Amino acid sequence: MFRFVYFVTVASLGSVICLPAAASAARAIRHLPVDTLHADALGPFKGDFAEIRVAGKSRYVHRSGKVVVDKPVRYGAPVCIAVTDGAYGAINSKGDVIADFIYDDIRYEYADKGHPGTDEGYHYFLAIVQLDGKVGAIDTLGQTVAESVYDDLRPVNAHVLAARKAGKWGVLSLIDGREILPFTYDDLTRRYVPDGYLEVTAAGKKGLRSPDGKREVMPAVYDDLMGIRLDSGPLLLGEQGNDIFLLDTLGKRLTMEQYDRMSADSPLVRIERGGKAGWLAADGSVRIPPVYEDAANWVDGLCVISQNGKKGVLADDGQLIVPCQYSDIKILDDRGRPAISGSIIIDGPPMIPGSPSKSSGRRNDKETTGGDLYFMAREAGKYNLFDRAGKKLLPMEYDGIQFGNTGARSCLYIVAGERYGLADLQGKELLPVSYRFPMGGYSANVSGTGPASIIRIPDGESIGLYDLERKRLLLPPEYEQLEWQLGRFIKATSGRGDGNAIADPVSAYFRADGSPLIPPTESLLVHAVDTDRYVVTTRNDGYWSTTLFDADGKQLYHHPQWDFSPYRLSKQLVPDSISRLLLDPPFQGGLLKVGAEKNLFVDRQGKEVRFEGFDFVDDFFGGLAAASRNVDGKALIGIIDSAGNVVLPLEYSGMDKIYNGEMRKVRRNDNVGVIDLRGRVILEAAYEAVDYLEQPALFQVRLNGKAGLVGLDGATVLPTEYDHIRLISDSLLRVEKDGKFGLVSSMGEVLAMPRYEEVRLNESYAGYFPARVKVAGRWTYVQADGTELPVSAGDKLGY
């Protein structure tokens, strides 16, 4: 059917140029074939085509290198549509011309499987071709599905193709184009409920056929058909004259009684008659008669309905859970969010002005309602809460009710006038309505993270804590600032007024359960150094001293010249993933560094530990610390354990963090190596330079002036024989050797040997390849596997 013309030089610009495939050669070096299109200049690929200049005119080459056209029309799919000499043609993703450039027009018709992009990602993908007013269909392999003899074509599903001829529609097989249904219908379209079925129209009446078109499901006797989806599956609504009734997918009529409207409503069919709403079961039986003025969507078998202008809550068995006597009702989950059966939340519950804990009512995509349900009811500006069974939970109506959440627990802020209190989700009072909202709705500061059951309790500009698990007030709301330390201790601070001046702040210290450790003290300097240890630093006679305590407040150790500060810790061996989050306690490996003396530490029992024979020992982490010793006036660094044993020999002149990598560079004289945080040598200190590439995770090393790549396991990925290596993407690098450029993958595979004078990649959105390369003074294209396209030019287009 198709004619291919091969060119060595361009004889006529009014032709489609079909280029031969590139010849194979040795791995990673594939030279241009003898038959090459010689152009003036080459441009970058922008999608499936690149502009080239031939005899002063713009043409476009397909990324396969097989076809050159006048103008691409549509691309980025398994089939590209292009124009040459004013005629349309089609090219598949392999560069094969599947529809000759002879057509008046071509369009796509396809149905994807949810992950399009390849031929396998589609139920079907067709090029619908038009010639002399007639249309046909060709698949991605170039096979003719339907000859160009039809007035119109319309793919219906993965089985059949609707075709129109002489004003009538019939059905063709999508596999071989044979006729399945004769051309007798006025219209023929796809139904999405039930999915893939054929809706046929004859003499103005509609019917339904099976997806393959062979079986009649419903005769063409209906004025209209509409599909609806229930939780249990699809149904159909049929219309004849003024009658509307429910049908199953086999065409059986399920209702005889007439209604004004019907629609899907989750598990039920909503019906309306005379302005009143009710519901049918999926089998057409009346579940709830149409007696309600209005109704919201069903949520887990519950629905807010209206009667006589008032709202209530109805169960799907027809029982009235909450009577219709409220101006507004919202169904909420146990976090105070609007309860849903689907996946999207827009509106939250009514917000209380100045409330101490506001829930946005939003949830993540695909997160559905779970746990208990509650009904927030409002009448005359007052609120109350009902449980799922319709029991009123609170003893009175309040001016506002707001859910408060912490961790996996929830509570209720109940508001009366300008004050609020706390209740649990069973309505039991936890704190009386006696606390003031903070001005502007912002409470005093609480920093750090405590146990998941603890919730903040503001009172005006003061703050306290309440434990929802133990149902007791942890700290009364009388502090200006609360600071959780390592989740186990609380520093509570208040200013102290002295006339118009503010004196030093006063702080107290508590355990996580609220029990006191240190009474209110001016300018208290206290820091948790472990989950059961803390230190207090005080100033006496111009000197700072620090004392170590256990979680019971027992003094374990004191040094009169120890000025402790968590910000002076070195932490050379702390992983970045931990140090960035500031979660690591300084008491590590059973030892805490005492900065008052050289290499002095204290253990968990308060006993001093000294490391003799070292000039410096860093803070410990995971039982290890960096240490150094002076040898001939030079500090040599290594790693020791908490017993003083050498884990990494002290023979390195420097140790530096590799940020975003849990490793350290070590230097020996002028050479560089890499170790992990346990002291294991990954790269010997034998390289002139080492740079960590996070994506891909590799080391770029330099040895004897040459660059190479090494994996995190120390294995060579690319030998050190290149002048330069430049990271282009997480899977591609450009290499330079002897002034020539090439390309390698992050796995070390040489994609294109360094033989090019220049390499110009496409923008990443278009795919880096085919890339433009210059060799022997001329430009061509190279694919990601190193194959060169049969196109050559003396210049490039653009920068």
From TrEMBL:
<feature type="signal peptide">
    <location>
        <begin position="1"/>
        <end position="23"/>
    </location>
</feature>
<dbReference type="InterPro" id="IPR032774">
    <property type="entry name" value="WG_beta_rep"/>
</dbReference>
<dbReference type="Pfam" id="PF14903">
    <property type="entry name" value="WG_beta_rep"/>
</dbReference>
<keyword id="KW-0732">Signal</keyword>
<feature type="region of interest" description="Disordered">
    <location>
        <begin position="349"/>
        <end position="368"/>
    </location>
</feature>
<protein>
    <submittedName>
        <fullName>WG repeat-containing protein</fullName>
    </submittedName>
</protein>
